[in-house]
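agent> Task received from the user: take the single chain below, predict its 3D structure, and emit structure tokens. No templates, no multimer pairing.
agent> Plan: (1) validate residues, (2) run structure prediction, (3) serialize to tokens, (4) report one or two observations.
agent> Step 1 OK, no nonstandard residues flagged.
tool_call: predict_structure(input=
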Amino acid sequence: MLYADTTPAAKRETFRARLASGEVLQFPGAFNPLSAKLIEDKGFDGVYISGAVISADLGLPDIGLTTLSEVAQRSSQIARMTHLPSLVDADTGFGEPMNVARTVQTLEDAGVAGLHIEDQVNPKRCGHLDGKAVVDADTAIKRIRAAVQARRDPNLLIMARTDIRALEGVQSAIDRAKQLVDAGADAIFPEAMATLEEFAAVRAAIDVPILANMTEFGKSELFTKQQLADVGINIIIYPVSLLRLAMGAAERGLDELKSGGTLQPVVPEMQTRARLYELLDYEDYNAFDAGVFNFQVPGGPVPTGI
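)
tool_result: status=success, residues=306
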């Protein structure tokens, strides 16, 4: 009831242990707290909080328009609703090294299990769009060093994302990844890899966990969990997938309503009231109400359930 009773520290510890186990972890992207509860209910390993999704939810493109406070608020709302670890997109850290340090502590306070900082020029853009620019190695390294030094819980995962592959190729991505690991990154997110061979090349070059971004309509083919496991990937994210599924269904429903004047034909496609109440734990709330608010009316029967 209310929020998950697993502490942020416990989630981080569990996340670290599972990463060390060699499992391949799947983190679908939650577009709100309710979708995070659904991700947990379906048995996934964790929840991803996408910067692109936060931007879209605000009606904005993913071009660095969101603020740290907006990202931290949504991260807190999502992380507190699930026992699963959450990994959040922290963009470029919202500034230079001191800003990165503040970003890390703010998101740590929000209850996330990990975050990633990228090497794009600030303000950034979606990693699967053309026209990106990255900072020099020294700036990228300083961001990660600041992030590592700022965290207070050593189990908070600091992941470094590099977007350099789209500009200079896979070898440059490998070289940058090695530099970021040397700077203290716990894991690497090589953005917009085109083939399994490219993921395998990054895996062969570094020893820390690697993330694969399986976003639709992007630069990467949508590889299966097993294909990515076979080349040594540790975490797979599906950042915008649930939002796209939900918005696709919403658009089809609105078209039906506009053309036919009723949603009756698409009711079978909707989540039922019973299923929604199940996800929201209505029974637990009812039990809590009964235990707290029951009272005896003078002269009436003695209530039960107290």
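agent> Step 4: summary for the user.
The chain has two domains: 8-243, 247-293.
agent> Done.
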